[in-house]
């Protein structure tokens, strides 16, 4: 996965996900909204054939990159749990 940082301020980040589809970015944006210090987590895509962009704004001094990192880790934990449960079904 190739990421390109388009904009970064104390309370806003815009990241382009080069060559990626919408599924992960939509899940990441939804998970970001679970963080009380995230004001906006939005998936943008100018045209269907362009790379998707994630826009995140934060409040209360929260770093937008830290919020993204934490949300990605939570998604990874959920995916790992699902994987373990599916693998357990295969061996049962």
TrEMBL record:
Gene Ontology CC annotation, any one: DNA-directed RNA polymerase complex
Family annotation (CDD domains): RNAP_L
Positions of the DNA-directed RNA polymerase RBP11-like dimerisation domain: 13-84
Compartments where found: Cytoplasm
Keywords assigned by UniProt, alphabetized: Cytoplasm, DNA-directed RNA polymerase, Nucleotidyltransferase, Transcription, Transferase
Keyword Cytoplasm: yes
Domain of life, source organism: Archaea
Catalytic activity of the protein: RNA(n) + a ribonucleoside 5'-triphosphate = RNA(n+1) + diphosphate
Pfam families: RNA_pol_L_2
EC number(s) on file: 2.7.7.6
Chief place where the protein resides: cytoplasm
Recorded family membership: Belongs to the archaeal Rpo11/eukaryotic RPB11/RPC19 RNA polymerase subunit family.
Self-association and partners: Part of the RNA polymerase complex.
Role, per record: DNA-dependent RNA polymerase (RNAP) catalyzes the transcription of DNA into RNA using the four ribonucleoside triphosphates as substrates.
Database matches in NCBIfam families: PRK01146.2-3
Protein name, entry field: DNA-directed RNA polymerase subunit Rpo11
Protein source organism: Methanoculleus caldifontis
């Amino acid at each position: 996965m190739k990421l390109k940082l388009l904009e970064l301020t104390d309370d806003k980040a815009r990241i382009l996900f080069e060559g990626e589809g919408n599924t992960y970015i939509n899940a990441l944006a939804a998970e970001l909204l679970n963080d009380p210090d995230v004001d906006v987590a939005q998936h943008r895509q100018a045209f269907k054939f362009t790379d998707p962009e994630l826009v995140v704004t934060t409040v209360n001094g929260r770093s937008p990159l830290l919020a993204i990192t934490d949300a990605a880790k939570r998604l990874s934990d959920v995916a790992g749990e699902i994987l373990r449960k599916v693998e357990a079904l295969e061996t049962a």
